[in-house]
Amino acid sequence: MLHEILEANGGLPDRVEVTFQNTGREMPETLDFVQEVGGRWGVPIVWLEYRSYAPFFEIVSHNSAARNGEPFEALIRKKRGYLPNQQQRYCTEQLKVLTAKRYLRSLGWNRWTNFTGLRADEPSRLNKPQPPSCWTVRHPLADAGVSKYDVERFWRAADFDLRLPLVNGKTIGGNCRDCFLKSEAEIAAYKREHPEDRWSERMEALGSELTGSASQAFFNKRWSHRELREFVERQGDWIFDAEGWLCQAEGGECFG
Ligand code: SF4
Q1: Residue 185 Cβ contacting ligand 1 at under 6 Å
Q2: What domains can you pick out in the chain, each with its CATH number?
Q3: pLDDT at 239
Q4: Is residue 246 within 6 Å of ligand 1 at its C-beta?
Q5: CB of 254 closer than 6 A to ligand 1?
Q6: Does ligand 1 come within 6 angstroms of the Cβ of 98?
Q7: Which amino acid residue places its CA nearest to atom 4 of ligand 1?
């Protein structure tokens, strides 16, 4: 989407801000990709992170960006240990949507249009009511009829890309590493590849401690991250082929 905006306007129009909200839980490839997009296409990308104190955001850079979930942990602590989940996705709202809003308001903006990269083949995510806020949402890729195959074709022809696996048009490893909106199979596969990453387990322990209630301290109501990791360690690879074992029919995707 950004590439098309640059093409159509002969560069970035003066009144446009391009932002990236880092949760601290993205894969390193994602951070490198954002940096590379800015450098190769000559676009100033403003790197933002949530902070739990006024003005509730900070401008960072590729060098200083959090890589161990620090902004996310600060938010969980601010919420006194209540963890986000499929029903209460406050992380998207605070770490991404409101962090960008706070930055733009700090520039003196009162009304703006927010372009998102949703495609035409994602109808369930389109046609949502406009937010009752100071911005209007537009989906230029969807308006232009762009599908995931067009996006794949674009990146196959490009001389760089995200360097994360693309499966059926979906970037495995995009967004937060073991986000609760990913399917159980994706999260289990991530745990197999990265047994050293215990951040989500640590947050569930922190949630238990701060809320004093283990039932509030899970990202997923069916299993804890520790249980899933131990399950993956006990079982062999067969669970990744056994349809239904780790199936989650409504796996979604964060797009803030
Ligand atoms: S990717 Fe998932 S965990 Fe990260 S902010 Fe979005 S909904 Fe929350």
Answers
A1: no
A2: 2-163 (3.40.50.620), 177-234 (no CATH)
A3: 59
A4: no
A5: yes
A6: no
A7: 176
What's residue 168's pLDDT? 65
What one-character DSSP code corresponds to residue 110?
Answer: -
* pLDDT score recorded for residue 28: 95
Q: Which residues of the chain have pLDDT under 70?
A: 166-169, 236-256
SS3 245: coil
Provide the whole-model pTM: 0.90
Find the DSSP H helices in 42-139: 70-78, 90-91, 98-106
Residue the block writes with tokens 């995510």: 125
For residue 123, report the distance from its CA to the centre of ligand 1, in Å: 20
Q: Hey, what are 193's tokens? A: 């590849």
The tens digit of pLDDT for each residue in 98-126 reads 999 999 999 999 999 999 999 999 888 88
Name the amino acid, one letter, at 3: H
